[in-house]
Amino acid sequence: MKDKQKLPDAQPEKTGISRRNFLKTVTGTAAGIGISQMFNPALIQALEKGLERHPVLWIQGQGCTGCSVSLLNSVDPSIADILLKVISLQFNPTVSACEGEMAMEHVYEVAKEYQGRFSLVVEGAIPVAENGKYCIVGEMDHREITMVDMVQELAPMAGSVLAVGTCAAFGGIPAAKGNVTGATSVNDFFLTKNISTPVVNIPGCPPHPDWIVGSIVHLLEAGIPELDSDGRPTLFFGNNIHDNCPRLDDYDEAFMAMSLSDPIGCRMDVGCKGPDAYADCYKRKWNSGLNWCVNNAVCIGCVEAGFPDAMSPFYEPAY
Ligand code: FSX
Ligand code: SF4
Ligand code: SF4
Questions:
Q1: Which residues line ligand 2 (CB under 6 A)?
Q2: How far is the CA of 307 from the centre of ligand 1 (A)?
Q3: What are the boundaries of each domain within the chain?
Q4: Which segments within the chain are labelled E, that is strand?
Q5: Active site annotation includes 135
Q6: Which of 40, 76, 125, 169 could link 163 by a cystine bridge, Cβ 3.0 to 4.6 Å?
Q7: Which of 74, 30, 84, 58 is nearest to 218 (CA)?
Q8: In Å, how far are 76, 239, 240, 256 from 36, measured between CA atoms?
Q9: What is the pLDDT along the chain (319 residues), one digit of tens a residue?
Q10: Domain 239-296: assigned CATH number
């Protein structure tokens, strides 16, 4: 699984896209969302000379795997180009062929070999109750390895940590009311363990693939992106959904949709949390730019630290 090879030059016959075109694609995608500033010609030239692909270890605790699946759905650039041209994904529990003790050994070997130079992606919350026993993720040397062990041991060795998904970034659904597992976000976990590795939060339940890919590319080419007070890249999470919603005029005119089947009207009265949510869904959209939540339903505020309890709780809130 290890790959320390220099990136080859263009291999369109294998991947359908050259490295140059890949970078153009990423830059082009970035341009529409205001992040073109982070890619300048000097950086692109440096990339085109070929650098070692960046090692990434992706581990998962309490989550539904939607974050991994969302990344796999990356269309432009494709997941194949991300894996073949940008990062060297050394482990991901959903897609790695390696499993069992061998997989655990590999993860720890990679962390030692690339100490300070790899990125650790954490997907899902970290259940700290009962010494982490609610989430045993592997076994090695006759020791059960919990998610708590993995984050505690690997995060200090990493150069950076990406908390992918609202569960990892803020606790999310596993930390919702009624949770008995002590589901904890990466940043809160780091505070209790005195871990100081820089963290980039990429929330969303699940996060848009562009938010994951764009953050990784920014990290590799321009360092840690500018973060808001919740640790999210302002590139993607800097603007309010309601302020940019195509239905804002309806809101201003108090023209409210009465049900989700109403094709027009502001959806606040049927539960839209757009006013409390900060993300670029309104212009990026989902499924290759085809649609987004407010078109067919409502924004449930899935990128926010209070999600789901403070946004769209599973229980009847006592107002
Ligand atoms: Fe959480 Fe990831 Fe929501 Fe699921 O595993 S962000 S539950 S979409 O996918 O962690
Ligand atoms: Fe705001 Fe939601 Fe109404 Fe759009 S539908 S204007 S985001 S409340
Ligand atoms: Fe999440 Fe709202 Fe964006 Fe939908 S529109 S992905 S619920 S932040």
A1: 241-242, 245, 247-248, 251, 266-268, 272, 274-275, 294, 299
A2: 12
A3: 12-235, 239-296
A4: 54-60, 87-91, 119-123, 126-127, 136-140, 143-146, 160-164, 183-184, 199-202
A5: no
A6: 169
A7: 30
A8: 16, 17, 20, 37
A9: 333 333 333 333 343 445 555 555 555 444 344 333 344 444 444 455 555 788 999 999 999 999 999 999 887 778 888 887 778 899 999 998 888 999 999 999 999 999 999 999 999 999 999 999 999 999 999 999 999 999 999 999 999 999 999 999 999 999 999 999 999 999 999 999 999 999 999 999 999 999 998 898 888 878 899 999 999 999 999 999 999 999 999 999 999 999 999 989 999 999 999 999 999 999 999 988 889 999 999 999 999 999 999 998 888 765 5
A10: 4.10.480.10
Q: Is 67 considered catalytic here?
A: yes
Q: What is the CATH number of domain 12-235?
A: 3.40.50.700
Q: How many residues does the chain have?
A: 319
State the distance from the centre of ligand 2 to the C-alpha of 23, rounded, in angstroms: 35
Residue nearest to atom 3 of ligand 2 (CA): 266
